[in-house]
Amino acid sequence: MAAVAQLAGRVAGTDSTVLILGESGSGKEVVARCVHRLSPRREGPFVALNCGAIPAELMESELFGHEKGAFTGAVVSRKGRFELAQGGTLFLDEIAEMSAQMQVKLLRILQERRFERVGGSQTIHADVRVVAATHRDLEQRIGDGLFREDLYYRLNVFPIEVPPLRARCEDVPVLAEHFLASLSARGHQRVHLNHEIQQALRAYPWPGNVRELENLIERLTILYPGQQVGVADLPPRYRPAVSVADDPDDERQSLAQVWAEPPALLPAGPFDLKLYLEGIEQTLIAQAMAESDQVVARAAQRLGLRRTTLVEKLKKYAGDERREGLRG
User: Fold this and answer.
1) Per-residue pLDDT of the chain (328 residues; tens, 9 = 90+)
2) Residue closest to 136 by CA, chosen among 307, 295, 318, 311
3) Residue 10 contacts by C-beta under 8 Å, 6 or more apart in sequence?
4) Which of 57, 87, 165, 290 could make an S-S bridge to 206, C-beta 3.0–4.6 Å?
5) Kind plus residue range of the DSSP H or E element containing 101
């Protein structure tokens, strides 16, 4: 990560396009924000867009804006992300999910640095630094005919690869402490992690990376506010492998104890059950999305939900986060 930070610092002083590569949840947006904060554009806006979360038919309006009457439902003119990011940085996350048609239009803007709103004729200069990110192998996507090679080379001016959390396990205690401090600042009672739990967390492979760690720390804070927690308080998947005796009967008994152990879910003291259950639901949705490479249909299948139901829940929790940010 020191090398990643050094690369971010080197490119920040330029206006070069940056392509951040790494697994889902590894911290690509954090690196993008770091590039922005270290750049001469730091006083300008940082505007983020997840290309995989916007329907293809709405992406052009989302990026470039539209004029009143440009299409059904366009009752007012609206600025797009390029216009909102003027003088700052536009972060295009999950760029590999962008449709072929939009890839052509994005390539044109990166080359010409100008665009028009949908339904408009006025040319707008794009004074924007573009940072893109993806968890996919773009060269393989090019070979599969899913990503334009010319756009790849336009984006890949300065690549930065973010290593997965399992490759930097020494960061786990530092990140856990950061998340604990952040939750404490938001009003949560701080939990205390003993040495054994820190060792267990460092040994876990973290398929969901930093996002998964953040979700776990928040869950522990909800379950054990103000308490000292150990390995036994972790969900079973995070605990070290259980050692068993050579006797098959002892092995069956040990495994039966592990399987039969009830999870400790009831917080100490009074609490808001509705908010508590929503927090658990939000954590499970985030984990399912991470395991499904942010593909909503696959995550919905993993959770046993209809795709439309999961989309509504994602919108709801995204709205809650935006409102929370406004209150803060």
Assistant:
1) 889 999 999 999 999 999 999 999 999 999 999 999 999 999 999 999 999 889 888 899 999 999 988 888 888 999 999 999 999 999 999 999 999 999 999 999 999 999 999 998 899 999 999 999 999 999 999 999 999 999 999 999 999 999 999 999 999 999 999 999 999 999 989 999 988 998 999 999 999 999 999 999 999 999 999 899 989 899 988 988 654 344 445 545 555 554 555 555 666 667 778 887 888 888 889 888 888 878 888 888 888 888 888 888 888 877 665 544 433 3
2) 295
3) none
4) 165
5) helix 100-112
